[in-house]
Amino acid sequence: MDCFARLPEGCISEILSLTSALDATRASILSKQFKSAAEGDYVWGRFLPPDYREIISTSVSPLLKCDTKKDLYFSLCDSPILINGAKMSFYLDKRNGKKCFMVGARELAISWKGCWDFTPNAKSRFSEVAKLQSIGWIHIQGKITTRMLSQNTNYAAYMVFLLERMDGLRSSKTIVRFLKNHQSISNTSKNGNFESRETGKIARTRGDGWMEIEMGKFYNGYSEEYGEVVEAWLTEIHNPEGKSGLVVEGIEFRPL
Predict the structure, then answer these.
(1) Does residue 18 sit in the same domain as residue 74?
(2) Range of 144's domain?
(3) Tens digit of pLDDT for each residue in 130-185?
(4) Running DSSP on this structure, what letter comes out for residue 147?
(5) Which of 66, 92, 118 is the last residue of a domain?
(6) More confident residue, 14 or 30
(7) Domain count, the chain
(8) 136 and 228 in a common domain
(9) Would you call 90 exposed, middle or buried from its count of C-beta atoms within 10 A (0-12, 13-18, 19+)?
(10) What is the CATH number of the domain that holds 107?
(11) Beta bridge partners of 106
(12) What is the pLDDT of residues 116-128, one digit of tens each?
């Protein structure tokens, strides 16, 4: 510790910038010199995504006043902002500063849209959610360009929803795939349950009051090898029983 205490503050800042937000926060209690370095804009600027200014520039949400980059970091962790004409939301994973996006219901490709209502929901960050009235088959697709996501990062896609009723809603199939030049180059699929059971891939309650079901995992290498777009689908086309009561907020892509 004495060796570190003798280092110039600039050196301490450089070292801390190679760690994580959690490490920098812990280091700030070690000494006044560490506190000054650990709370500096240089360190927290390194924890923010390289394109954070570009992302924020598309925000339609009022941003909280942030005097420092540390304040901005935690604001983006705790308060998702609406971007791209309020069609998507963006926030940071507090653990590592990785980018998280949700594609809102209005931006999803939903088959048989005449069987859905788009309506406000007080719990949603978006102006409208998709509410299923009555249908036999379900097909919902969300996509995002790989360049928007954090590079060299393991992600998962999640359907974010509520269930007002369980009419005909039991199980579903999900697919996550990469597209290059509109052609699929890899995909994973799984079966999931809307019901809350203790086994299998099931829906779980989120901290914001919604529920989610994991649709699939993928590695975003952001290179020609990994494709240009990642798609996540949820389908239920094998049981023609009438279905209703599903409320969809969006599909979220976030780091594991």
Answers:
(1) yes
(2) 99-255
(3) 998 887 788 899 999 999 999 999 999 999 999 887 655 666 778 888 876 555 54
(4) G
(5) 92
(6) 14
(7) 2
(8) yes
(9) buried
(10) 2.60.120.260
(11) none
(12) 999 999 999 999 9
